Automatic annotation (TrEMBL):
<dbReference type="GO" id="GO:0005737">
    <property type="term" value="C:cytoplasm"/>
</dbReference>
<keyword id="KW-0963">Cytoplasm</keyword>
<dbReference type="Pfam" id="PF00685">
    <property type="entry name" value="Sulfotransfer_1"/>
</dbReference>
<dbReference type="InterPro" id="IPR027417">
    <property type="entry name" value="P-loop_NTPase"/>
</dbReference>
<comment type="similarity">
    <text>Belongs to the sulfotransferase 1 family.</text>
</comment>
<dbReference type="GO" id="GO:0008146">
    <property type="term" value="F:sulfotransferase activity"/>
</dbReference>
<feature type="domain" description="Sulfotransferase">
    <location>
        <begin position="38"/>
        <end position="287"/>
    </location>
</feature>
<dbReference type="InterPro" id="IPR000863">
    <property type="entry name" value="Sulfotransferase_dom"/>
</dbReference>
<protein>
    <recommendedName>
        <fullName>Sulfotransferase</fullName>
        <ecNumber>2.8.2.-</ecNumber>
    </recommendedName>
</protein>
<keyword id="KW-0808">Transferase</keyword>
Amino acid sequence: MELVQDTYRYPEEYVKGVPLVKFFAEALGPLQSFQPQPDDLLISTYPKSGTTWVSQILDMIYQGGDLEKCHRAPIFIRVPFLEFKVPGLPSGFETLKETPAPRLLKTHLPLALLPQSLLDQKIKVVYVARNAKDVAVSYYHFHCMAKVHPDPGTWDSFLEKFMAGKVSYGSWYQHVHEWWELSRTHPVLYLFYEDIKENPKREIWKILEFVGRSLPEEIVDHIAQHTSFEEMKKNPMTNYTTVPEDIMDHDVSPFMRRGKAGDWKTTFTVAQNERFDADYAEKTAGWDLSFCSRLGVVFSGNHSRGSV
């Protein structure tokens, strides 16, 4: 019996020096003509940093906490992924055209590849950042199960590529820092994964204030409960199990895997950790932005936000 070649697992394509999933790179051309609506809200993250989590929180806010309305479609339909493109499925840009206002949009694009219209029109952005070590581990497992990415190889080789910024969407360091710098001049609410993990209600109140909405405390409690990792992992509208298996193989690794802060400690060897820490210190020298390697422990640099 002849083996059918995998449709996916193509090498990344470079756009303006940034490696991207081949199909996503192809989507960037049409995306440059994108004209946002004034009440659009963009959710931006480096991959595996809590994008789906904050997307579900925001959709529940927009739906007034009505869980049934949030079951109307999978999260990638409710919150169109701007640069998404996979053979046989509607692109993010196409999905966006069918989305009624006020719209929530999602992207992982670095600023160099973002449609300029989003910046020119000062569209509000909720940005979520997560510590680099947990991102690296989560991104490795995501590469294993999401076949639009090239084969990640071994964990050790993937970690080297991650540190060098040679994975899809490029450098974590550049991404989190350039969006932090943008928050000085653009309406960006810059959130941290670990802060949401520690106190979700506090962060939901921040989001409500940023988007100019108010909800009773019992509804905020309801949103916090139904956007917990445990609830979202078993919810087909958030856990990506509706995506065809030839694109995402949940038998290899679930899309929502562990959702912890500090889980990197189960994967990094002592040698990998020492090498990563040295590289991290070099690349973040002079930052006024800091991260937590686990709850309660600042990773490095000056702590530029409330205590975690």
